[in-house]
């Protein structure tokens, strides 16, 4: 019988985007070449840059989420106005709370964060009647409807709508821990 031609197996180098013969000599020759070494260095640099960019992006996303959370807290603990324009409204809230004498250290911390971030709400984070990126929206009373069917009022109380009994059920309070807090009740 006559000899017939058999194709040689080939190996794809992902660094160089080329096919090379899959034998020991050709593999060693390719891997010892300057072009391959340069392409491997570029690949490692590129992957390192992409990893750093991903880390920076996650940090930016975390900062943005903290900023949105602070704006939501500002709207929940606010005076009921749609969006405070300047630091004067935040200072007024701090003054009213300290005059009452009911503000604990947790409330002071939350009011200080509100005082530090007064401009975040005026930058357009809290838009009345429009959904935010998480599927929730703010109402004109300073409350927030989340995407899970819950409602945060401006004082930090959380309610869930009970579809079976057709009413809002009080779940809890996410504010400071004063002794004057309302305990959750099961209303039927």
Automatic annotation (TrEMBL):
GO cellular component: precatalytic spliceosome
Keyword Zinc-finger (UniProt): yes
Compartments where found: Nucleus
Region (Disordered): 95-125
Alphabetized InterPro entries for the sequence: Matrin/U1-C_Znf_C2H2, Matrin/U1-like-C_Znf_C2H2, U1-CZ_Znf_C2H2, WBP4, Znf_C2H2_sf
Domain of life assignment: Eukaryota
Gene3D superfamilies for the chain: Classic Zinc Finger (3.30.160.60)
Annotated keywords: Metal-binding, Nucleus, Zinc, Zinc-finger
Methyltransferase is among the record's keywords: no
GO MF annotation, one: RNA binding
Residue span(s) of domain Matrin-type: 11-42
A GO biological-process term: mRNA splicing, via spliceosome
Biased composition (Polar residues): 99-123
Name of the molecule in the record: Matrin-type domain-containing protein
């Amino acid at each position: 019988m006559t000899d017939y031609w058999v194709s040689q197996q080939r190996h794809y180098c992902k660094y160089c985007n080329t096919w090379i013969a899959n034998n020991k000599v050709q593999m060693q020759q390719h891997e010892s070449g300057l072009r391959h070494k340069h392409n491997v260095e570029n690949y490692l640099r590129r992957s390192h840059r992409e990893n750093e960019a991903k880390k920076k992006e996650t940090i930016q996303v975390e900062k943005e989420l903290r900023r949105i959370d602070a704006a939501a807290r500002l709207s929940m603990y606010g005076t009921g106005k749609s969006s405070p324009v300047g630091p004067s409204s935040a200072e007024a809230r701090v003054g009213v709370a300290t005059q009452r004498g009911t503000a604990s250290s947790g409330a002071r911390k939350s009011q200080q964060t509100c005082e530090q971030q007064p401009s975040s709400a005026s930058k357009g984070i809290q838009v009345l009647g429009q959904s935010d990126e998480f599927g929730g929206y703010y109402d004109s009373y300073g409350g927030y409807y989340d995407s899970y069917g819950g409602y945060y009022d401006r004082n930090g109380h959380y309610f869930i709508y009970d579809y079976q009994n057709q009413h809002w059920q009080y779940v809890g309070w996410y504010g400071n821990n004063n002794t004057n807090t309302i305990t959750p009740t099961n209303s039927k």
